[in-house]
Amino acid sequence: MATDSPRRTLAALGLSPRKSLGQNFLADPNVARKIVGLAQKYPPPYLEIGPGLGALTSCLAEAGAPVVAVEVDRGLATYLRNRFSGGSVEIVEADFLNVPAKEWRRRFPEGGTVLGNLPYSLSSPIVLRLIELRDRFPRTILMLQREVVDRLCAGPGGKEYGILSVYLGVLAEARKEFVVRRACFYPAPDVDSAVMSVRFAGEYSEALVAALRTVVRAAFAHRRKTLRNAPVPFLPGGAGQWCELLLAAGIDPAGRAEEVLPAAYLALARAFAGM
Ligand code: SAM
Q: Which CATH architecture has domain 206-273?
């Protein structure tokens, strides 16, 4: 049975899957190879987030690819260090969200490619962190809950389109690659997963990205209301100034956040930041 292997490995290690860390281990080697095949379209070295029992890591290691894998679970990190010692894989025991950017600059002086089967509860913070790190890691292959991938890759006009879809729509090309059924994991989660690729493109200053975050958050704060009613405490001129900025960006203040294209949000951020 496809789910036997992680179960047996964990039992041999005296470990159990930790729900709090989103530990649903990939138990289907074909899916692992497919994900790693996508990552290998992009240049090494690789940063793997949450290697777990090494389902993806081992495919990269077999190919001799240089990998830094960051795992927060001490028991798993110890297991992985033993398993991959002497090869091309380095294990870092840490919370990915707490590793400072300068550490990644040191370890990846020329940049690299990210891959990971992410803990679902941390999908949004990890994607936001990868947006911050996009200069260092311009290419990313991620497995997430299927609905989250649908949201991240969504275009305007529907309820799936939200804050993160706008960020990725402006800063990247995000694409849903394929669906992975829940039965491919041990333990099986309650939902299916999907793999997505993200290629960051374009050069945007941190100031412009910060402005984008401010205006997009305001726009989506009350998504059922029209844009003119968005909360804008960051504008000294209040709603009047907001409507001027919307019009300057070609956005109808009587429209709703989910109808606005990423490019129009970028224009709004430029108008707000005076860029
Ligand atoms: N990559 C493995 C696989 O595909 O079987 C494991 C995937 S499992 C969904 C998520 C992994 O991320 C777990 O090993 C978990 O311990 C690890 N993890 C959870 N939170 C983390 C964090 N903040 N930083 C690094 N790893 C984390």
A: Orthogonal Bundle (1.10)
